[in-house]
TrEMBL record:
<dbReference type="InterPro" id="IPR050630">
    <property type="entry name" value="WD_repeat_EMAP"/>
</dbReference>
<dbReference type="InterPro" id="IPR055442">
    <property type="entry name" value="Beta-prop_EML-like_2nd"/>
</dbReference>
<dbReference type="InterPro" id="IPR015943">
    <property type="entry name" value="WD40/YVTN_repeat-like_dom_sf"/>
</dbReference>
<feature type="repeat" description="WD">
    <location>
        <begin position="301"/>
        <end position="342"/>
    </location>
</feature>
<keyword id="KW-0963">Cytoplasm</keyword>
<dbReference type="Pfam" id="PF23414">
    <property type="entry name" value="Beta-prop_EML_2"/>
</dbReference>
<keyword id="KW-0853">WD repeat</keyword>
<feature type="repeat" description="WD">
    <location>
        <begin position="515"/>
        <end position="547"/>
    </location>
</feature>
<dbReference type="Pfam" id="PF03451">
    <property type="entry name" value="HELP"/>
</dbReference>
<dbReference type="GO" id="GO:0072686">
    <property type="term" value="C:mitotic spindle"/>
</dbReference>
<dbReference type="GO" id="GO:0008017">
    <property type="term" value="F:microtubule binding"/>
</dbReference>
<dbReference type="InterPro" id="IPR001680">
    <property type="entry name" value="WD40_rpt"/>
</dbReference>
<protein>
    <recommendedName>
        <fullName>Echinoderm microtubule-associated protein-like 2</fullName>
    </recommendedName>
</protein>
<keyword id="KW-0677">Repeat</keyword>
<dbReference type="GO" id="GO:0000226">
    <property type="term" value="P:microtubule cytoskeleton organization"/>
</dbReference>
<dbReference type="GO" id="GO:0005874">
    <property type="term" value="C:microtubule"/>
</dbReference>
<dbReference type="Pfam" id="PF23409">
    <property type="entry name" value="Beta-prop_EML"/>
</dbReference>
Length: 662
């Protein structure tokens, strides 16, 4: 959201005990190398064929997803006062005090082990390139740290999860079965170094991992040789010198570098057989080289209004060029080196052309700079295959009764997704970047909080505005209706929570007042089940409670120890003690969400992981099941109706990922 073959060059797996693996299957539909203990795992070696439903079950030392880094979980310096029934701990030196419910006070142990839940996470779908069509009929492209194999006709995805950080490029072997993907350097330069992985597109098995320690910044471009059947691989490092290296990738598991040379400071666009797209002195051109040599035979200037970003050969002998600015695909005759006159314009909302590949029955498939994949032909129309956000994704909300959800981003677009059809139901352009969103309890109304301090209430089906307003000039960080829909709370980056009375079927909003008391921006808020109280957290790790109808803070937090909360998104509280890593500075955990059945808790953190824990997580020794795929901060998580699926959003990786709970 193919059948395999054995490969003698793949290393045998180290032994793994049953206590280390939650779910392993042998059909290899989703491959993940991050299975073994940190002491056993060598990040430079390719991993064998396994399917991991959940990356690990951990307490104490957690194998940190793609980073292969040991992350220790469990707050230190935690104390429990039996008489007061409160737990005290520290985040970045600041004391935090939370109260345990009365029913749990007797015999409460702050460090008792809590096992991971029976449910595990399997990546089902992601929504967001280098782009190729495989013989299986699947499109292969990448998003964040995941290589996606997408069957357009069946609307299904498979995923290669071997990388440790953002994939930057992809190349298809002449056999059409092997794929090479190159990644950037991760936050931990030692354990997430840039490298290239060569893997089987049918079995999703890693065959070779090359270049670990050889690339400086990131692998920006890859290409297999054509004359010798793909025996060599060319890689370009995005370091200042743009080093080009040639690899005998089949020599051993790590390959062998044959030669390396420095390139010019400017990056080239694309090379395909004997044609080259270029940007020369402000004139965008296509260069025709003599076959078998490097002498320029002809230059066609003004081929596109913008840079020529991609060239692709079609089965009829012609080739297609794509303009990075004009959004036009232009067909060329391979013999005369002249345009045939046939053009295909990509509609502006999809964005400029970034990459092209040949599709079925004379069609072309295009990846754009706005994270969209479209297909069409020179004789027909263009249709969307995949659409995604083009800037940081921060807003996420699940429909209360249907398998649909909202996402919003700083690209000023609000999207409604259907989790079953894996498609965009609708997209709406907003005046400003979208920071937060929510549904009304009946699902009829949507409220979107914008980066400008404005908020808009709209009909969920027609997208027609119903109301709106402005509260301050800072982003509206979080919006949420009370359980009965009579009140609306908006938490702002200006440190205030604004409360509105909602009447006339969610079309009239009257401001009651604002809650003042936080000394930093509002990060999360939850309503009590009776709609009387609010709990809020802020950027300086403060947990406060409020009487919402009068916008008054309740300083005696012990009075609310037994309040039942309609949701649990606040990352501070007695029921979420176990979500924090050891030595947490308060910014490590970005989001959490309790399932509707109240027995599961999903957590998104700064390390690109989605963690699934049992709820309540009222102990610092809580084990979790982990989902890997994001390459940046996980900014939001939410369960869909019936708790069968979980949605996560990545901030800077601009991805939306859907997980199956199995």
């Amino acid at each position: 959201m193919g059948c395999g073959s054995s490969n003698p060059g793949v290393a045998n797996p180290p032994d793994a005990g049953d206590d280390e693996i939650l779910a392993v299957e042998s059909d290899a539909e989703t491959y993940n190398p991050n299975l073994y203990d940190a002491e056993e795992f060598d990040p430079d070696l390719a991993r064998p064929l396994v399917r991991i439903m959940s990356a690990s079950s951990e307490f104490g030392m957690l194998r940190a997803g793609g980073a292969k880094k040991e992350i220790e979980y469990g707050l230190r310096d935690v104390s429990y006062n039996e008489e007061e029934g409160n737990v005290r701990f520290y985040l970045r030196g600041r004391p935090i005090q939370v109260y345990v419910p009365t029913a749990e006070m007797e015999g409460f142990e702050v460090a008792r082990p809590i096992p991971a839940p029976d449910k595990t996470l399997k990546l089902d779908w992601d929504c967001r390139s280098n782009l190729y069509l495989l013989p299986t009929g699947e499109l292969v492209y990448f998003v964040a740290a995941v290589a996606v194999l997408y069957n357009v006709e069946e609307m299904t995805q498979r995923h290669y999860l071997g990388h440790t950080d953002d994939i930057k490029c992809l190349a298809l072997h002449p056999s059409k079965l092997l794929v090479a993907t190159g990644q950037t350097a991760g936050h931990d330069r030692k354990d997430a170094r840039p490298h290239v992985r060569i893997w089987d597109s049918v079995s999703l098995q890693t065959l070779h991992v090359i270049g670990v320690g050889e690339f400086e910044r990131s692998v920006g471009c890859l290409s297999f040789s054509g004359a010798d059947g793909g025996g060599l691989l060319c890689a370009v490092d995005e370091a200042p010198d743009h080093n080009i290296s040639i690899w005998d990738w089949q020599r051993g598991e790590r390959g062998h570098k044959l030669v390396e040379t420095k390139c010019s400071a400017e990056r080239g666009n694309t090379i395909e057989k004997i044609y080259r797209g270029a940007h020369e002195g402000g004139v965008f051109s296509i260069c025709f080289l003599q076959n078998g040599g490097n002498t320029i035979e002809k230059i066609y200037r003004g081929a596109h209004e913008g840079g020529v970003f991609s060239i692709c050969f079609l089965q009829n002998g012609t080739f297609v060029s794509g303009g990075g600015k004009d959004g036009v695909l232009r067909e060329w005759d391979s013999n005369s080196h002249e345009p045939t006159g046939r053009e295909l314009e990509i509609p502006e909302p999809y964005g400029p052309v970034r990459t092209i590949t040949s599709g079925k029955a004379g069609t072309v498939v295009v990846g754009t700079t706005r994270n969209s994949v479209v297909r069409g032909s020179f004789d027909g129309a263009v249709e969307s295959c995949i659409a995604g956000h083009t800037d940081e994704v921060w807003a996420l909300a699940a429909h209360p009764h249907q398998g649909q959800f909202l996402t919003g981003a700083h690209d000023k677009v609000l999207r409604m997704w259907d989790s079953m059809s894996h498609s965009v139901v609708w997209a709406k352009d907003m005046e400003d970047g979208v920071q937060s969103a929510c549904f009304s309890p009946d699902g009829s109304t949507i409220v979107a909080g914008l980066t400008s301090g404005r908020w808009v209430a709209m009909d969920a089906e027609t997208r027609e505005p119903r109301a709106g307003g402005t509260d301050g000039n800072e982003p509206i960080q979080v919006v949420k209706f009370s359980p009965d829909g009579s009140l609306l709370a908006l938490g702002s980056r200006d440190n205030f929570v604004y409360i509105y009375e909602v009447t006339e079927e969610f079309s009239k909003y009257s401001r009651i007042g604002r809650c003042s008391g936080h000394s930093s921006f509002i990060s999360h808020l939850d309503w009590s089940e009776d709609g009387v109280n609010l709990q809020t957290t802020s950027g300086d790790y403060e947990l406060l409670y409020w009487n919402a109808s009068v916008c008054r803070q309740i300083p005696q937090s012990s009075q609310l120890r037994d309040v039942a909360w309609a949701t649990q998104t606040c990352v501070l509280g007695s029921s979420v003690l176990g979500i924090w890593p050891t030595g947490a500075d308060g910014t490590d955990v970005n989001a959490c969400s309790r399932s509707r059945s109240k027995d599961l808790l999903a957590v998104g953190d700064d390390f690109g992981r989605v963690r699934l824990l049992s709820h309540p997580t009222s102990s610092v020794k809580a084990s979790a099941n982990v989902g890997l795929g994001h390459s940046s901060h996980v900014c939001g998580v939410t369960f869909l109706v019936e708790d069968s699926r979980l949605i996560s959003i990545g901030g800077r990786d601009m991805s939306v990922m859907q997980w199956l709970l199995e």
